[in-house]
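Need residues for this backbone.
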């Protein structure tokens, strides 16, 4: 994997210019200005929720603020899908910036799972890593890691720190020299 470091770095630093706007039916005390961010493709919307919420709470009545959720052109965006995947599935053929609508009411119970804290997204992320390692290495790599390694992996992703993340993720991406490759190559298909 070290030969591919430039490619890994380019993928890591892939960004999607995004414009967050408050849904027109939300009750505000004053007009809410759009909020612009460059979102990392490899991250999750729940990791930028605090920034977006803070921006829009300035214009809203506090009693009107409940669980935040996002949608694109009427489709609720799933928090447990990476941002790049959400963009590719829903908006890859549109002009940038990607326009995401922010909601604080009427959570779509039938379409989205609740995500009450960053601990939930961390648990989801680590479960995905463990599933992939089970296929690639019979869970040997993840089981040999210490809790601090798991935390470093998550914190690297959460804080958008390439070196911090890849110092640990490298172990998951390599196979022992005595093996000719991975047992299986894990991948998911999203529709």
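Answer:
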């Amino acid at each position: 994997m070290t030969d591919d470091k430039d490619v890994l770095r380019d993928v890591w630093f892939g960004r999607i210019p995004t414009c967050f706007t408050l849904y027109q039916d939300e009750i505000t005390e004053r007009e809410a200005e759009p909020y612009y961010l460059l979102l990392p493709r490899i991250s999750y919307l729940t990791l930028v929720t605090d920034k977006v919420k803070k921006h829009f709470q300035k214009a809203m009545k506090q009693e009107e603020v409940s669980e935040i959720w996002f949608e694109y052109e009427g489709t609720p965006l799933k928090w447990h899908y990476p941002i790049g995947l959400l963009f590719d599935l829903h908006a890859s053929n549109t002009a940038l910036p990607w326009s995401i609508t922010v909601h604080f009411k009427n959570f779509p119970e039938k379409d989205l799972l609740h995500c009450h804290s960053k601990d939930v997204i961390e648990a989801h992320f680590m479960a995905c890593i463990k599933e992939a390692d089970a296929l690639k290495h019979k869970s040997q790599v993840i089981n040999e890691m210490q809790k601090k390694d798991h935390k470093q992996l998550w914190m690297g992703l959460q804080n958008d720190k390439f070196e911090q993340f890849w110092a640990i993720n490298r172990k998951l991406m390599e196979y022992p020299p005595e093996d000719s490759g991975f047992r299986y190559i894990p991948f998911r298909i999203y529709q």
